[in-house]
Amino acid sequence: MSAGLRELKKRQTRQAISDTATRLFLERGFEQVTVAEIAAAAQVAKMTVTNYFPRKEDLALDYHETFTASLAAAVTERRAGESALAALRRELLAAVERRDAVAGFSGPDFARLITGSPTLSARLRELHDLREDALARALAAGAAPGDPVPRAVAAVLAGAHRVLFQQVMELTMAGTADHEIAAAVTEAARRVFDLLEPSLGGYAVRAA
């Protein structure tokens, strides 16, 4: 088997395990399903499940790596002449337009699964914290050692994203249609980022 086929097989196996776990979680609740039951339903060994997903929570929140890296990536890849704030605003609005899980779009059943599970709710809070940490490291690139400003800015910007993410989740659980959620969150994001613009609009502007 070629390297390309092996990688494809790994991705397919990982996706099949994740899909199986999500189905079982939605049917019975996160805490009520064991890793062994997921492995049996996916027709793989339990060790295979844990190799792909060392933490049970990440079987449900399987986008965690993309999520925690998303804000830092937006800043690192910002355009010439673009501030960190502008890049994060642009990327958030694009994620809302895509109805992306990174922005909180997940469907009512899945949103209720997350909020109804103490374990998954705690993991989601941890992922938000990890995302803020990654953003702080990205903003600190080139700053003086020990400068507290990148960390403070990261806390503000990540906090804004956390609030907007929560709004998406709450509207989703209320049964609001995705297009209505997108419209509401887009308007909320405009107000939030406009409020931050006077203080942070000139911070971390990428050189031309």
UniProtKB/TrEMBL annotation:
This is TetR/AcrR family transcriptional regulator. Residues 34-53 bind DNA. The keyword Transcription applies. It comes from the Bacteria. Pfam families: TetR_N (PF00440). InterPro entries: Homeodomain-like_sf, HTH-type_TetR-like_transc_reg, HTH_TetR. Keywords: DNA-binding, Transcription, Transcription regulation. PANTHER family: HTH-TYPE TRANSCRIPTIONAL REGULATOR BETI (PTHR30055:SF234), HTH-TYPE TRANSCRIPTIONAL REGULATOR RUTR (PTHR30055). Residues 11-71 form the HTH tetR-type domain. It comes from Actinomadura luzonensis. SUPFAM superfamilies: Homeodomain-like.
